[in-house]
Please model this.
Amino acid sequence: MTASSGDTRIRQRESGARAGHERHRIILGAITGVAALAYSVLSLTRFAGFRAGAYDLVIFDQAVRSYSRFELPVAIVKGVHNDFGPGFAILGDHWSPILALLAPLYWIFDGPQTLLVAQAVLMAAAAVPLWVFTRRALGSPGVAHVVAVAYTLSWPVAETVAFDFHEAAFAPLLTAVLLERWQAGRRGHVVLAALALLCVKEDMGLLVAGFGLFLLTQRGGRATGGAFVAGGLGFSWLASQVLIPLFGGRSDYYWAYGALGPDLPAAARTALTDPLTVIAQLGTPPVKLVTLALLLGLTLLAALGSPLFVMAVPLLAERMLASSFPNWWLPEYHYNAFVVVVVFAAGVDCVRRARAKAPWLTRTWAAGVLVFAVATVPFFSLAALADPDSYRRDGRERAAAAAVAVVPDGVLVEAANNLAPALSGRSTVLLWDRTPRWAPWVVAEVGRRTFPFENLAEQRERVRTLIANGYRVTFERDGYLVLTSGRS
Model:
């Protein structure tokens, strides 16, 4: 073989490799782009169908709008309803300064829809570093594509994008970046990703501490792991006990462990003296075990075979040991988004460790993970994308649209939970609740129970109270009423 023919073959191989890399980039881009589009459609159709809420979409909309005006993230709807006052900044509720990064988007479009699209993009974008992590661990771009698709179809992601907007949108991407950068040996980048996670929510210190626990299991990771554990736990204490009260919140506002004790020292004593009570709390109520089973099912239990899974344990314990705030332990809502990437990465790591003894395992496992993801789709929110009724307004939804259209721009309005998001972009919105706020405009619902009322009788009594105090009804249809006091 001549030198020239050898050079030709080398160039052909290099050209083929470049073409392969480009093909995989295109596939990954398509996976991410389609996911972001699907999530956006899901969120926006729910918004258009009045299935979003003041709690929590309007809270974040008001906060990010305040950031966009270079102000503290004040959410009057939260402050008034929860008796913190109209000037309450949500940094006194959760330590989530990362939300300020979304403020420039409000200079382009000022409305809650902006948050829904941003969340869709952030959740989908986590597939990229997760793909890199998987390809590097398992040596197969094709398997990495399968894992990326399984992530985008997974029920924790679906339930997150279906429930308004939350700071959890940042967690999968930052967690995936942290793990991929650790895998690549870039310690500086790992620290930066961890610091960014600490800006997502006060309990992200538990996730960082969990990563430190994982590092303690790795050779030469004792010092670094100890630093992450201490730093994560120390930050969670600082954020919950100092920073949140500094912005008008209460350090005990989210204490959810009354079954174990009235405060942390008491709960710790219970754990030491009566560990069976703590263990029993993990399965009380039993739906906690269902949620854990569904999480582990994402990787066909493979996550349990990796020490990396310990990273998720502190956050899972925080939720599953709780005896109040039932939303924390359900499969619905956004709470599982904080650990979904850790579960997938731990599953990948387990397969990496086992494939030397079972070379066939990688592709078989990936196929099973995809099958599980697809099989769960009909039972969670992504299924709505295939339902034609999701894109059509029924009579009640048309009545809701007509009701909010009656309210002028730029006014103070009390609005029923599901109607508030439609007004938030153009008016100052308060939640219509049990306490009269005497806003000039009120949009009420008496056709079905709405948060935070206990029953329809309460809602109807609130309307009678308004009328008795001089409000007049300017619109009434299908259970929706618009009332005004005539005051500006």
User: Anything to note?
Assistant: Strands lie at 412-415, 428-431, 441-445, 472-477, 480-484. The two ends are 90 Å apart (CA to CA). The chain has a mean pLDDT of 94.
